[in-house]
Specification:
This protein has 169 residues and is an alpha+beta fold. It contains six helices and five strands; from the N terminus they run αααααββββαβ.
């Protein structure tokens, strides 16, 4: 136990007020909510390693789908020393457990926090991924089942490709 405390004491703390500092705050919060990363990891049978906790907190705080590079850069800005290979392995582990989902599109794969069922829009030009609530496409998903016989599961996601508003015509 003493060794673990010593390691935590040496870990640099994120600068207060940074965009990620709120997400990477102390792991000893006794007011755990269902959305708290420790609860999510334990519910899925995973150990609460520092890398997994940091990654979940980052994805929750960002509210975006991040590539491996973007996740690593955000963590590096917050002074969390995680090797890019560890970021990759952590995201793969969280994806396999169902805590995170991956969206493939042009450019690098992007990872987002798994929660409410939702679909995605993907810009073919810049690769930006945006979540779209499933209620907007429920009818379309039902039609797909009717036409093809495919029964989408709870993690099924429709991907709509096109150009985002920033990329324009």
């Amino acid at each position: 136990m003493g060794r673990a405390l010593a390691v935590r004491a040496r870990r640099p703390r994120p600068e207060r007020g940074s965009s990620v500092s709120v997400a990477l705050q102390t792991e000893h919060d006794r007011t755990a909510t269902p959305d708290e990363p420790r609860v999510r990891l334990r519910r899925h049978g995973l150990r609460c390693t520092p890398g997994r906790l940091q990654m979940l907190r980052l994805l929750i705080a960002s509210g975006r789908h991040l590539s491996i590079t973007e996740a690593w850069e955000e963590l590096a800005r917050s002074e969390s020393a995680i090797h890019p290979a560890t970021v990759y392995r952590t995201l793969e582990t969280l994806t396999a457990a169902g805590l995170v989902h991956v969206v493939h599109g042009p450019g690098p794969a992007r990872y987002g926090i798994t929660g409410e069922p939702h679909h995605h829009t993907v810009c073919r030009q810049c690769g930006h991924v945006e979540g779209l609530a499933s209620r907007h496409l429920t009818e379309a998903a039902e039609k797909i089942e009717e036409l093809t016989g495919l029964q989408p599961d709870s993690s099924g996601s429709l991907l709509v490709y096109g150009r985002c508003a920033d990329c324009g015509d």
